[in-house]
């Protein structure tokens, strides 16, 4: 009997039901009213509608940047040469440090009498360095590696020999100047 009453009630109310969706924020307003009625205070952060799209764009930008970094990470010439001939990198480091030390010593010996010879020496060193760079390129292009490696070592030895010769010449110039100065004072 009661089932029939309920069915009849629904039939009588047919078409009067609210079937539309509630407005946005309905749930939050309902909970706010409920908490007010119970004396509770709700602290609800407002959601930023841009937060999800911005985080998505930032993630894509980071992935894109990392991908480009990995894709474009070309090894340097020294790294490529070290792959071809590992012993070259050690030799190159040794010779380069020795040359750098001698260049510093040469520059510290600069005086008006030696200035021109030092400048000429630096020009010759630049030419030898350019020649060395061409040898590196030839090695990377797949030339005769033994011959090129030998030429690279000879280039370093030539630079060291040049620097030693110039340092000896500067010592000679200094000795001549000292002797000349001593002779001028004795007379």
Task: Characterize the structure shown.
It is a single chain. By secondary structure, the protein is mainly alpha-helical. It folds into two domains: 22-73; 77-186. 78% of the residues lie in helices and 0% in strands. The protein is built from seven helices and no strands. It has helices at 2-13, 26-38, 51-71, 77-84, 86-108, 115-140, 145-186. The longest helix is centred in the last third of the chain and has 42 residues, at 145-186. The protein is elongated and about 135 Å long. The termini are far apart.
Write the layout of secondary structure elements.
Layout (H helix, E strand, L loop, with lengths): L1 H12 L12 H13 L12 H21 L5 H8 L1 H23 L6 H26 L4 H42 L1
Helix pairs in contact: 4-5, 4-6, 5-7, 6-7
Estimated helix fraction: over 70%
Q: Whole-number radius of gyration?
A: 42 Å
The count of strands amounts to 0
Could you say which overall geometry the principal axes of the C-alpha atoms support? Answer: elongated
Q: How many structural domains does the protein architecture include?
A: 2
Q: What is the straight-line distance between the termini?
A: 147 Å
**Percent in strands:** under 5%
Helices, by number, come to 7
Unreliably modeled segments: none
**Biggest pleated sheet:** none
Run of helices and strands: HHHHHHH
Structural class: mainly alpha
Query: What is the arithmetic mean of pLDDT?
Result: 79
């Amino acid at each position: 009997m009661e089932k029939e009453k309920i069915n009849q009630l629904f039939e009588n109310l047919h078409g009067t039901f609210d079937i539309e969706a509630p407005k946005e924020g309905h749930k939050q307003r309902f909970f706010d009213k409920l908490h007010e009625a119970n004396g509770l205070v709700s602290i609800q952060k407002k959601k930023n509608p841009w937060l999800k799209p911005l985080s998505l764009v930032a993630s894509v930008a980071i992935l894109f940047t990392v991908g480009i970094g990995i894709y474009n990470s070309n090894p340097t010439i020294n790294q490529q040469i070290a792959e071809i001939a590992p012993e070259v990198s050690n030799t190159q480091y040794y010779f380069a440090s020795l040359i750098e030390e001698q260049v510093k010593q040469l520059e510290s010996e600069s005086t008006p009498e030696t200035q021109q010879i030092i400048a000429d020496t630096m020009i010759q060193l630049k030419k030898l360095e350019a020649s060395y760079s061409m040898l590196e390129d030839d090695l990377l292009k797949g030339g005769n590696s033994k011959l090129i490696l030998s030429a690279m070592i000879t280039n370093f030895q030539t630079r060291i020999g040049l620097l030693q010769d110039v340092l000896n010449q500067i010592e000679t110039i200094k000795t001549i100047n000292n002797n000349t100065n001593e002779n001028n004072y004795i007379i």
